Amino acid sequence: MHVKFDSNMKKNVIVAILMASLFSGCANEFNRIYQSTDVTYKYECAKSYFAMGKFDYAATLLQDVVLTQKGRNSGQESLYMLAMALYNNRDFEAASATFKKYFQSYPKGDYAEQACFYIGQSLFESVPEPRLDQTPTVGAITAYQNFLDYYPDSQLREAAQNRLFKLQDNLVQKEYLSAKLYYNLGGYFGNINANTESNYEACIITAQNALKTFPYTDKREDFSVLIMKSKYYLAKNSSEQKKVERYRDAEDECYGFLTEFPESKECKTAQEYIEKCKLVTKD
Description:
By secondary structure, the chain is an all-alpha fold. The protein contains 13 helices and no strands. The protein is elongated and about 90 Å long.
């Protein structure tokens, strides 16, 4: 994403660029600036570092002076610039928190719309792969939904929606991997708890819940395959008291699968399961 400025901020950045010629940006020069007691000078230097793309230096100085700018004309700019510096320095957790602080402090501010968007964007940049805990993904989804509620006509609406869909795909993939793991574990009982009888049952529950939560997912057929196969093997491995009922359930599931996915590569499997189920349920 590109940093966005309004006309006032652009003027300030131009001034900051001119000031950049006053110092080299080396570590020694930065330390001298950081130790200065002249808050205005430190703030102008922070803007210079920001303009030069030295976001680590800019963020350090801004964190030191941002509270002193509160209540001044530069209060909004300094807080938003700090958030952007953190974002561009890839400190996404701190950036999201700072954008959120800006939006809460200045809900009608000059950069409120951008800050609201970047709350989610910062979290989006740090979401883990689907196999890992998806708490950051849920947070990013909530942030983007809030943005779309606040700014339904924003030019950033399409970007927010596209990222929202991608994040939801991550959650779907997470659920699919969980369901598939249960299926692959099959008859293994080492991980079974009191809530489920077997891994096949856990697979069915996980896949069905995913389809309820994400009914329009592109992985609907994949989940349905896992449910169908798990119901068949759950029946096959059941006690005599439960076997007939579960084979009937598996048979119904196979018919439902054939109806919904008549072109699926797994139709042959569904037909085979039906024939095997009928051997038990025909009486």
